[in-house]
Amino acid sequence: MVAANWKMNTLPGGAGTLVEAYGAEMLCGHPELVVCPPFTHLATLGPSLGNAGCLGAQNCSEHLSGAYTSEISAAMLRDLGCRYVILGHSECRLRNPMESLRMPEKMAQAIANGLTPIYCCGEDLPIRESGAELEFIARQLADDLPNELKLNAQNLVVAYEPVWAIGTGKHASPEMAQQMHVFIRSRLMDVMGIEAERTRILYGGSVQGNNAAGFASQPDIDGVLVGGASLKPADFRSIFEAFARKGS
Ligand code: 13P
């Protein structure tokens, strides 16, 4: 999977143009392309993606419906044609101290409404520098993904996004990411059993055209979640091609 997180960039009118600039080969279904634009672009972007490209949102509410001003429900996203939703992105966790506490409910809402969460986890720099990253990720997974969610390889995609690598140009080395992905998979194995072997674990954090092949070469890096470079079609195409080669 190669997923584009546009964050709060582009205007609705430019969204179709950006997808067109990605090129037709990206819409052929392998690797799976997921585009996560701002909410305001979802309704119009679905048709530009055709049948093969998938639409994803960048967050959803933990509630089904009701008096939650400004929130968007998982059912609304599904109704707009979304197949995926990013949950637990560090930019949301950092801005909203309640975000992490809401993760189990958000995951449950997304899954109950037919969306597959692209669930994000990742440690910040002080944790990495203190050597406590495995412990931290184990805690985050245990807190956010309780057994009741009944996760399987279809209803969960995990994105390992070390906070210190997001938008900084300082990416994890492919070996470092591989090591963490193996660890995450072993933890998922505890809650999902054998399904964890088929669960896609993406790497995110300063992925660019010139470093994507390194990530693609690692056996447990099943794709990438791309921020800044997904706004640059040529760069994004190189990333996509690196993962197309991995699967061929
Ligand atoms: P960058 O690729 O800009 O570092 O962002 C990564 C990210 O946050 C994807 O969700």
Protein described:
With 248 residues, the protein is of the alpha/beta class. It is built from ten helices and eight strands. An eight-stranded parallel barrel has the order 1-2-3-4-5-6-7-8, surrounded by five helices. α8 links the parallel β6 and β7. α1 packs across α10 and α7 runs parallel beside α8. The chain is globular. The model has no long low-confidence stretch (mean pLDDT 95). 1,3-dihydroxyacetonephosphate binds next to β8. The site of 1,3-dihydroxyacetonephosphate has 14 residues, from β8.
Strand percent estimate? 5-15%
Name the helicity range.
Answer: 25-40%
Strand order of the largest sheet: 1-2-3-4-5-6-7-8
End-to-end C-alpha gap: 13 Å
Number of domains in the coordinates?
1
Helix-and-strand structural type:
alpha/beta
Rg value: 17 Å
Counted by DSSP, the helix tally is: 10
Q: CATH H-level name... which superfamily? A: Aldolase class I
Stretches where pLDDT is under 50 for at least 5 consecutive residues are none
Kindly identify the CATH topology.
TIM Barrel
What's the level 1 CATH class?
Alpha Beta
Mean pLDDT: 95
How many strands, what sense, and barrel or not for the largest sheet? Answer: 8 strands, parallel, barrel
Secondary structure: number of strands:
8
Helix/strand order:
EHEHEHEHHEHHEHEHEH
Bound molecules: 1,3-dihydroxyacetonephosphate
CATH architecture tag: Alpha-Beta Barrel
Basic shape: globular
